[in-house]
Amino acid sequence: MLPAASHGPVSVAAGLAATPAPEPSPAAGAPLTGYHLPWRAGDTAIVTQIDNASTDHVDQVDFILDDGDVYAAKPGTVVYVKQSSNAGCQYPPRLSECWRKANAIVIKHGPNEYSWYVHIAYRSATVSVGQDVGYGTPIARQGSTGYTCNADCSGPGPHLHFMVSRAHDVGSHCDAFGCWPDPNDPDDVAWGVDMVPVDFAEAGWIDLAPGQRYRSTNAVANAAPIPSPNASGAAMTNPVDPLGSSVDAENRSR
Prior knowledge:
The protein is mainly beta and 254 residues long. It has strands at 12-13, 16-17, 32-35, 44-52, 57-65, 69-71, 76-82, 88-90, 104-110, 113-118, 132-133, 138-141, 146-148, 160-168, 173-175, 178-180, 192-196, 198-200, 212-215, 239-242.
C-alpha cells in the first residue's frame, strides 16, 4: 500500500484491445465504468481496506489476491512500468520515504484516465511501455515492495494496491507517453494525481467492503461494453463470501 473514462467501445484482437474512444467525462464524483476486477476470471481476492482517509487511501483499494497474478482491469496502453525494486518495509512508520520503493504499472485508458497496479513483485512485469492490453491480460505478480504490512505488522505482506487517477506526477524520464520518475531507480516511483473511484463489473465501488471476498470475471471474452450499475449499484455487487473478523488474519498495508 502507498500514499495517497467513461467506458467506451473497444476493439479486441488476439486478446489485446485498443484504447477506448474518447467520450464526455462523467459527472464530477461519479465512478468511472468499464472495469473488471484486476485478477484472473474465476479467482477471488479479499478487500483489506478502501477509502481509508487515515492512510491516505481515499478512492483507493487494497486487495490480497488468492493466486497473485495481476490482470489489466480495462483495455488501454501501458505507459509506465517500474519493476526495479526488490525492497519493502513494514508499515508503519509512515513518515519515511520507503513507499517510493514500491514497484508499479500504469495503464492509460483515454484522456485523463490511468489505472495503477502498485506493489508488484520484483521483475514480475509481463508487459512493457507502449503495449496495448485488454481484458484477460496478465501484467505482473502482486508483491510486497514499498510500504506493506502483514496482519500483526511483523513484516511486509504481499497485496495489490489499485487506484485510478486523472493525472500523474511528473519526472525527468520522458518518452512518447509522458514524463515520469525514472523506472530504473528502485528508490522512486510515480504516483497518481486526482484519484477517482470506479465501478467494477463484479461490484460497484460503494459495495466493496473490507473482509469481503470477490470473484473476478476478467477474461478476454469480456470485450463487449460493460453496462453501468443501476442507481443503487446492487446489480453489480458480487461478494463471494463474507469473511468477517477473519480479515484480521490477512495482510494490511498502505
